[in-house]
Amino acid sequence: MKAESKVAIITGASSGIGMETAFALVRRGYAVVLAARREERLEQVADRCREIAPGAAVDVVVTDVSDRSAVERLAGGAVEKFGRVDVMVNNAGSGMFARVHELSEADVRDLFEVNFYGVLYGCQAVAPIMIAQRSGHIFNVSSVIGKRGTPFHGAYCATKFAVCGLTDSMRVEMKPYGVKVTNVCPTLTATEFFDHSRMEPRAHSKYEAESKMMPASTVGRKIAATVGKSRPELVFSIGGKFLVTLSALWPRAVDWIMRIYHDDLVKRQKS
Ligand SMILES: NC(=O)c1ccc[n+]([C@@H]2O[C@H](COP(=O)([O-])OP(=O)(O)OC[C@H]3O[C@@H](n4cnc5c(N)ncnc54)[C@H](OP(=O)(O)O)[C@@H]3O)[C@@H](O)[C@H]2O)c1
C-alpha cells in the first residue's frame, strides 16, 4: 500500500484535537496513520476519514506513546506501508489537576511519560526519516499553559513547558534539513480531555463546563493549514495570545489574574 499522496501520522487520534486534525488532513488529500490506545475508537475515526475522503489511505496503529519501541514501530510501519512520512502530529496527552504540594511523584512521572516522553519519542522516530527525505513537518501539541503556569495545573504545565522547550530547540536544529517544527498551544478546547484527566477536583470540572471552549476542529484545521509553513508557534484565541504576551511583558499582572482564578476554584471546591 504505497501512498500517492503525502503521509501524516497523528498520535492521540482517537478523539478530540487528534481526531479533528486527521479529518482536516484527509480533506487536504493526506494519507493518515491514526495512533492511540483505544482501537475501537480509532477504527471509528478511520471510517469517518474514509467517508470524508473516499479512497484515502487510512491506517490504524494501536500505540501507547509512552512506549518508545511502539512509537518507533509506528513510524517504521508508516515508511514500510507508504514509503514516507511528511507530517508528524505529536498530540497524545492528558491532564492532571492538583496543587503542587498535593501531587504524587508517581502520578507526575506517569504524566511526563505520555505528555513529554511521548512527544520526544515521536520526534526522534520521525527525525531520521524526514532528514533523509530533506522535508517534513513536526507539530508538537503543548498548551497555552505551557507558556505560563496556572494554579492546580503545576504538573501538567511542567510537561507542556518541557514540550515547548524541546520544540524550540528542534526547530532550529532541523532547519538545515528542510524540516519544519511547530509548537501548538491551544486554549480551552471542547474535547474528552477533562473526562480523561486525573485528580480533577469537582470544582474544576464545573469551572471548565462554564468556560467558553474552542471547538477541536478549529485546532485541527489550523494544524492542517500550517503544514509546510515556517510557523514557530500556533497560539489559539485572543485570550491565549493575551496571556502569552502579558506573561512576557508583565508577569506580576498575570499572577494577580491567576490569584482570582485560584481563589474561585478554592471557593467552588468548598461549596
Ligand atoms: N482540551 C484542551 O482544552 C486542551 C488545551 C490545550 C492543550 N491540549 C492538548 O491537546 C492534546 C489532545 O488533547 P484533547 O483535548 O484532544 O483531549 P482528548 O480528547 O482526551 O484526546 C487525548 C488523546 O490522547 C490519547 N492518549 C492519551 N494517552 C495516550 C497514550 N499513553 N498513548 C497514546 N495515546 C494516548 C487519547 O487516546 P487513547 O485514550 O485512545 O489512547 C486521545 O486520543 C493533549 O496533548 C492536550 O494536553 C488540550
Question: Would you mind describing this structure in some detail?
Answer:
This protein is of the alpha/beta class and about 270 residues long. It has one domain (about 5-270): NAD(P)-binding Rossmann-like Domain (Rossmann fold), CATH 3.40.50. It has ten helices and nine strands. The chain starts with 6 loop residues before the first strand and ends with a helix. The mean pLDDT is about 95. The site of NADP nicotinamide-adenine-dinucleotide phosphate (NAP) has 30 residues, from α1 and α6.
Which key phrases capture this entry?
9 strands, 10 helices, 7-stranded parallel beta sheet, Rossmann fold, two-stranded parallel sheet, 54% helix, globular, alpha/beta, 271 residues, binds NADP nicotinamide-adenine-dinucleotide phosphate
Secondary structure: elements and pairs:
Blueprint: E1 7-11, H1 16-27, E2 31-36, H2 39-52, E3 58-62, H3 68-82, E4 87-90, H4 105-133, E5 136-141, H5 154-174, E6 179-185, E7 189-190, H6 193-196, H7 202-210, E8 214-215, H8 216-226, E9 233-235, H9 238-249, H10 251-270
Parallel strand pairs: 1-2, 1-4, 2-3, 4-5, 5-6, 6-9, 7-8
Brief synopsis:
The protein has 271 residues and is an alpha/beta fold. It contains ten helices and nine strands. The strands form two sheets. It has a seven-stranded parallel β-sheet, sandwiched between helices. It has a two-stranded parallel sheet with strand order 7-8.
